Amino acid sequence: FVQSEAVAQMWGRKKNNTSMTYEKLSRAMRFCRSAGYFADVPKNGKFPKKLCFRFGQKAHGWKDL
């Protein structure tokens, strides 16, 4: 993400949660990573260490959005 707070606000609007912050969103995304919806991003210098995500095996239907 380049504008993490903007992403959190958009997600909050989608979920009808006007108090959504990036801290709350990132906590949910950490859970989604452990559940398999996001996969680990290689830490080889090609990707930034933070705010970089990749869809995992359980993520489906996102291309339709």
UniProtKB/TrEMBL annotation:
Instruction: Please give one Gene Ontology molecular function term for this protein.
Output: DNA-binding transcription factor activity, RNA polymerase II-specific
Q: Could you give a single Gene Ontology term from the biological process aspect?
A: cell differentiation
- Output the SUPFAM superfamilies linked to this UniProt entry: Winged helix' DNA-binding domain
Q: Does the keyword Nucleus apply?
A: yes
User: Which subcellular locations apply to this protein?
Assistant: Nucleus
InterPro entries named in the record? Ets_dom, ETS_fam, WH-like_DNA-bd_sf, WH_DNA-bd_sf
Q: State the UniProt keywords alphabetically.
A: DNA-binding, Nucleus
Enumerate the SMART domains for this protein: ETS (SM00413)
Question: Where this protein primarily resides, as one coarse class?
Answer: nucleus
> Is Nucleus among the key words of this record?
yes
Q: Where is the ETS domain?
A: 1-31
Q: Which Gene3D superfamilies match?
A: Winged helix-like DNA-binding domain superfamily/Winged helix DNA-binding domain
Q: Name one GO cellular component term.
A: nucleus
What family, per the record?
Belongs to the ETS family.
This chain's protein is named ETS domain-containing protein
